[in-house]
Amino acid sequence: MSGTEAEDKFVAMVSAQAEVDLRLSDYHPVSELRTPEHMIRRPRFPVIDYHNHLDSQDPGAVLKIMDECGIEKIVNITMRTGDAALDVLKKFRAADKDRFATMGWMDWTGVERDDFVQVTIDRLERLVEHGTCGIKFWKDFGLTVRDAKGQLLRIDDERFAPIFEKAADWNLPVMFHTADPAAFFRPIDAFNERYEELAAHPDWGFSNSPVSKRELLEQRNTVFGRHPRTTFIGAHVGETPEDLAFASAMLDHYPNVHVDMSARTPELGRQPYTARKFFLRFPDRILFGTDLLPEISMYRLHYRFFETADEYFEYPSHASRQGRWNIYGIFLPDDVLRKIYRENALKLF
Ligand SMILES: [Zn+2]
Q1: Deepest of 1, 38, 282, 317, by most Cβ within 10 A of its Cβ?
Q2: What is the spatial distance between Cα 37 and Cα 308, in angstroms, rounded to a whole number?
Q3: Nearest to 124 by CA among 153, 154, 145, 103
Q4: C-alpha of residue 291 to centroid of ligand 1, in Å
């Protein structure tokens, strides 16, 4: 065989490509990787799940799961408002007042009224009297809520400033879920890394939104800066887990802000070196949360992420998954783990 012939075979081999027509939905590759696996049944320290939604759950059934996997307490962020929210609060308080806490949900009913800010403060006061542990502003603030003139409301609209000042007077933490993952602001097409998830939830796509993700975060940060006495929690790593440098700069700039890591283990676990550095740099500012239906296996996957150096394993997720990747553990040291799992949350109650 001449040199040229051998070279040609090699060139042919490394150049070969195939067009396949296997449906993406039918493709379920099984990893052949063999590396150490550690199943963590119980967390090394008691855990507070600071971000969950339990409205429709039976508290007794949830308590059994909590006992089984070392969950001391869950914050139920109710998605109900008015009397329905108080009913939920009472249901969980009656079941176990120490192991459940309820965070209120911003009620936009009547947003077109001139006295809406006062109405909101009165509503919040009622929640506070019943023992709510915080108030959550969802992504509809900034993306869809409109005023009487049909104008999209800005998060940093100064008319709302009294609400955040009142929250400081009451020592009531304010959670912001502002914007969404970066991929949700891109077209739902062949280049979108969360294509299958967005195909399952087309209403999560904001590529046609008149306001960009960056603008929403800037509006939110203006509020963080305007109310230094108020404690804020940026849900989902402040909504920038894909860019931990941005999240770090935000935390450096606003000492009154915490973040929760709920529903973002997939993002954090695919960048284990950067994520580990982030947790070690802000051990007092990050809260454990899940934002997933309480299930034993779901909690155990979180512990595996936080406590082990396991490689390339499945992340905890809702049914439509976040993207076609796996995660790596970040083996946090005990002193950091204790804060993230529990102590940082305790300071906010
Ligand atoms: Zn949530």
Answers
A1: 282
A2: 9
A3: 103
A4: 5
